[in-house]
Amino acid sequence: MIVLGIESSCDETAAALVENGNIILSSVIASQADIHNKYGGVVPEIASRMHIEAIIPVIEEALFKAKLSIDQIDGVAVTRGPGLIGALLIGFSFAKAFAYARNLKLVGVNHLEGHIYSSFLSENIPAFPFISLVASGGHTNIYYVDSYDNFELMGQTRDDAVGEAFDKVSKMMGLGYPGGVVIEKMAKKGDPKRIQFPRTYLEKESFDFSFSGIKSAVLRFITEHQDNLDILKYDIAAGFQAAVLDVLKTKLINACQQRKCSSIAITGGVAANQTFYKQLLKDASKMEVKVFVPKKELCGDNAAMIAARGYRQHMNKDYSEFEHDVFSRNKINSTGMK
Ligand code: KG4
Ligand code: ZN
After folding, report:
1. Pick from 74, 130, 182, 256: CA 20 to 30 A from residue 291's CA?
2. Which residues lie below 8 Å from residue 102, measured CB to CB, with a gap of 6+?
3. What share of the chain is helix, strand, coil (3-state, %, to 5)?
4. What are 209-222's pLDDT values in tens digits?
5. Is residue 143 within 8 Å of residue 134, measured between CB atoms?
6. Spacing, Cα 316 to ligand 1 middle (Å)
7. CA distances from 90 to 56, 60, 79, 112, 300 (A)
8. pTM above threshold 0.85
9. CB of 33 closer than 6 angstroms to any ligand 1 atom
């Protein structure tokens, strides 16, 4: 079965063709990051307008790269939420019209479940049960995953998402949006121990996160050291990154031990951080826990993960009706944000 996946929840317009849920025939991502960069963050109205321009060319390119014709598509999967309402609406409305016109079944996919499924798109996949982290610009969620359809939310951020913290620190330092890649690069030149930023672990048993404190601490430090920023910027980046990675690693290892799992899968844009992966691998291997990370292009938003989750929903006959609508974050379900 060939599923067309469509993703438009934030600032990437993406389409993918995936066979039987795990063979990627093509995956095309049109990023708007360069446009939003000059505003220091995603501007929802601009994002929606750009999705309108990109959606058809991106799908055409996905078909071209997969060497498929439109009538070889067997089902449609599209991100239904959470995300920016206007942005979601472009992909979801397109998918509805496409499915209706081609007489295909449509499934609406939870974006976070899509991220979890990016772990199933490699040759090496985690065995159930495993701990999954979705760490992106909008979410920092830890799940206990014990089947293809069961994702138990163990903890989530109470304020900023970890990717958002990277983006805000980058903005404070005048390094633009998105901030993850640039902060990681600068951190490589800095000393992670020179500036100690706070690590917020919250209650002992909690798997929740809070990143607003470290963000304020970095802002305070920057304000107090305006004259020396050129010298200190690498150490600030390294100190900030070390603090947030310490918290992520500790919570993941604790979750793994508490739920007796032998695998941790990290996903979302922040999972592309090589320092994170290497440090987690080191800590996890001491407890004989395996670490899984998707290929870089599958860490951030993409449509292959949506098609992968969508394939499973097709198998489960978990279809969307044409009168269904998108959701931003109105209902809480097992994935935390439905
Ligand atoms: O998953 P994603 O593409 O989109 C959302 O669903 O939000 O994640 C984007 C986020 C941004 O906040 C970006 O700064 C962060 O992922 N990110 C990184 C890295 N690459 C992207 N954060 C830390 N290190 C990176 N290398
Ligand atoms: Zn995402």
Report:
1. 182
2. 70, 71, 73, 76
3. 45, 20, 35
4. 999 999 999 999 99
5. yes
6. 31
7. 11, 16, 10, 18, 19
8. yes
9. no
